[in-house]
Structures are given as C-alpha cells and as structure tokens.
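We treat protein structure as text, and this decision shapes the records that our systems exchange. Because each token names a local backbone shape, the row as a whole describes the fold. For reference, a complete record is included directly beneath this paragraph.
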Amino acid sequence: MSKFLSVLASAFLLAAGFAAPTAAADLLPGMGAVSGTVTAPTDPDTAKVYAWNADMQVGFSVWVADGKYRAINMFPGTYEVTVSKNGLSSESANVTVTAGNTATADFTLAAAPMQSTYVLGRTLDVEKVESFDDIYPPGPGRDVLQKTCFVCHGVNFLPGLPQPREAWAPLIDYMITGNAFGIPGEPSLVDPARIPPQTREILLDYLEANMGPDKPTRAVKDEGGIALDKDALGKAMIVEYWFPNTAAMPNRWTQETHFDADGNVYVTERGLGAPGIVRLDPRTGEYRDYPAPDPKSSPHGLTVDVDGTVWWGGRNGYLGHLDPKTGATDQYFGNAQGHAGHTPVFDSKGDLWFSMLLGNKIGHWSRATNTVKTYDSPEPRARPYGLIVDYNDKVWYVEYHTDAVVKFDPETETFRRYPIATHPAAMRRLGIDSKGFIWYGVYGAPAPVGKLGRLDPDTGEVIERELPIPYSNPYDAWADDEDNIWASADNYLVKFDQKTEQFTTYPLPERTDQPKISITRDGAIWYTPRFAGLSGGMGGAAAVLYPDKDKITTYGAYYSTQNSANFIAQYKGPGTPVRNVIISNVPGVAEQPGPPPKAPPADRTPLTNTHGPTGAGAVLAD
C-alpha cells in the first residue's frame, strides 16, 4: 500500500467511527491511544510502530504482536504513525489522538528487499557493509586487534578510516607512549607491554593489508539472528521526549538521566557550544534548559540533592551545583589540568562521591565543610568511570582501562581491587542488586559478543554471561526492584532475569546507544539515546521503556527507597545553598563570584524534523 493510500485508509477508518471511546480507567487522565492491525505476506510480528508528534517533539514506539499493535497514554494531537520491518514495506498514516479515546489505524505491508545494515549504535557514512571475516581476515593481526583497538573502539572504527601505514603508525604510538587525553604527566592510554615492538609490526602489517588507502570505508554487517520475544514486545512501549536541534543549539546530544523527588527527570546536555542541564516533566512533555557557566564543561553524570538542587560532573572543573529555581551554579575547581568530575553519587549521610576519569582519582565532597578531597587510584591507568555507593556506604567504581571492579572504604581510606574474568576490556558502569552483588557490563569484550558480569564481594567470585547481541558493548548494568538486571547495549535494552537466567531484548526505535540507565520504582527504564544526537544529528532526548504499558500509573519518574541512586533520601539534614560562586580546593585560592546565570535560548524552532523511523540513522535490521 502506498503512503497516500495508507493515509487515506486511516482517514476513512476514523471517519467511519473507528475512534472508539475508551474507559477512563484504561488511560491516564487527558491521554488517548492508537491501535490497529498489521497484515503482510510474511510474519509482521515484532515490526516497529512509531507514532511521532512533531508539535510536541514526542514519539511513542510499540511493536506488533499477533498481527496487532497498541500505543496508550498518548498526548492528544496529530501523529505520523509508521510501521516498519526489514523485508517489508514501510507504511505511514496521519492519526489524530484525542483524550479518552482510542484511534484506529490498520496497515497492510508489502514485501520488500531486505536492507543490509551494520552493527553497533553509531550512525556511519560508509561505502560498503561486509561480514566481520571479510573485513577482518583471521590471523595473528586480528588476534592483536581483539586485545587492543577493539577494546575501546569496537569493530566499526578501523574499517571506516582506511589510510596508509605511515598514518596508522603514529596513532598506535600515541596509544602506547603519548600522554592520555593530551594531559601532561598522564600515563599512556595503553600499557606499552600490551604492544611490544614485534606486536606493533604485526598490527601495522595487518592494518596496511586490510585497512589501507585502497580499501573502501566499511562497517561490519548486521547478520540478524537476535531473538525477539513478540509477547514481551507486545506489552512494552517506549516514550521519547526530544530536545530538538535549533539555530542556537544545532548539535544537541544527551548523556544521562536522574529523577528528583517530584517526578521530574534531569538530563545532562553535552552538545558543543551549549552544554548544560535539562529538566523534563514527563507528565506534560515540557522542558527547560539550564546552560552551564562554561561552554566547554560538557556535563556528564548528575544527581539530585535533598533540596532539589542538581550536582553534575564535567570537564574543566570537578563539579557543578545548580539551583533550578534561580539558574545559579556553584563551580568546584580542581588543582591540576584535566582533573574533572564524572559520575557523582550521594551516600546516606548526604556527602557526595564522584569518579574522575581524567585525573585517575575519586573525589569526596563533604557537606559539613563544603570542600573536596581526592584519592589517587592505586592503578596508574585505571581511570575510574562509573561509580556507585553500596548499602553500607562503601564506594565502588570500575577501572576503565585496567579490568577491575574496585571498592573504596571511606572509613579506612583503603582500596580493594576485584579483577574481572574478561580482559582486556573497557568497562563503563556498574550497579548493585538487593543482595549486594555488583553487576557490570563488559564493554570491549573480544568479538563477537559483549558480556554481563556479576561480582560477589564476599567471595570475589565473578560470573560473566554472554549477551544475546553480536558485537555488543554493554555500557550500564542496573537492577530493578525485582532484581532483574537491565543492561544498555548499543541499539538495545536487555533484561536478565536472575530467577530463570533468561535474557529479553528490546530494540530501540533508532540507531543509538544508552550510556546510563535509571529505573523508577514502577520498573520503567529511563535512558538517553546519545548517539542518535551525537552521530545521527537527531538532537538530544530523554526516553523511557515501559516493559508493561498496562501497568503505567503515572509518567512521573520516582526512585524507590532501595535504589542505590537514591540514598540521598535517607539523609535528613539540610541542603547546601547554591551561592553562584567559584570554589577551588587549591590551598590559598580564595572563593570568587561566579558569572551570572545564562538565559536559555528562546527560539526552539527545530532545524529539521528528523525523528522516528524515517529520521537520520534510523534504519536497523530486525
């Protein structure tokens, strides 16, 4: 069916009375729904149905199960509803959603050629898509790549950058001899022992033969084969809240989410030239931008204090402390180039702990003294990344470059390292379940699969399981209140049921990754589609997966009391007022007034309407 006929059919259905009233108890107040059937010459189950509201910049994504789909609790308005599945035609219809009603739109899909696409979450502009073995012929050189370049860069970076031997050589040398991240005095990114001179020549020979200037730009083909549970997908729904690219903010992309006590979602915005914090009310779709004082700060992680103020970590300073009521920000600066806050987390006493990827430290902000103290990592190339606090106020983090989970005891100021089973790796984040087990994703595991790991802190036992997604790089691992473990892995969210030891995979609406997930007390999974903005040009966003849409009671996002991201709820003392000052932990450096708060850009006119299945970087194999 053509798009015109599909729209016409939808209009006929609506005019014929197929916008059926729905009992108010079935929907949130003021919301509507869309449902329908999908027929095709081959099985349409697990096809994606994406409803895009351009006026609100909000999208709803559901899946077809048993030939039917249903999206509920939708904001009233006009939606472009698109059904797509690889091997079938993509069809769209305009549908009007009204409060308290369910609109109907049925679709008939035709057969279409299978579209060849590539793995991982970054949008690429390549000439060819080929199998892993065609791009990387087996041999000693590939074995070296598996233990070096793949660990951080994945399988698509090298073939997308064909160049001569003399261009590859300085890149390798920087990794093993240069100061990491260009910071004076910082050890190299890679221990030189991993690439001794003989190995360096093997690596260069392989790159010259297979990634030389005579090769086209390529990416590893997505061979499919990912098992999707139609029944699980039929229950699920994703809601996306987009912060569009505008003339003032032309390259928005977002990193992390965190909830406040009122159900709002705060998001770190990292787009160059206009970084800051975004506050979203998911019940209305309204959001506000809070520009950071320093345009180079690149806010990364964030958390919300007992008084509703927001702490964030970024470059060019350890920490920022934002008062959303006034827009004022306190800035806490370090005493050396490159030292920067990364992942801030509160303990139950109301003090803040944070990792420092650049600087190879962890930091502690004392509420009592309003000062910062740092602790050097015992490993020179560890580079602490994700950080959590456990139920006993012990601090845990992952070593980005040296393959261990680390516990820091604030009382004794001592570290204990727990090496993981897979190495080398480039771990990003970690979480904790109700039994105290530490969970992590093995980002950078040797191809073809990523892994989900569990550490028993009492025994040191490590168990790692392969994810059901080829070439995946799991970023985060977080427990819901039922101790299911959720992992963010490129274009997918994955649930691991500890009782059955089974995985359930949820594909995302567009090509992206999700560097951090946040889980509500109701089991909703919040994330940011980072690469959709960073490499796909689609803007910034906060999104949420509801594993069972019929259990939605509110769009407000609230932590449970057992969530380790919410230990601030146990602190009963006062907050710390934001005074709009610059604070240094360098002895003898006086506190200084900060710059006046920046007003957010007034013009929110989107540069382009590039969202949903028809947007940039949206084509994925099912």
In short: The mean pLDDT is 92. The first helix runs from residue 3 to 18.
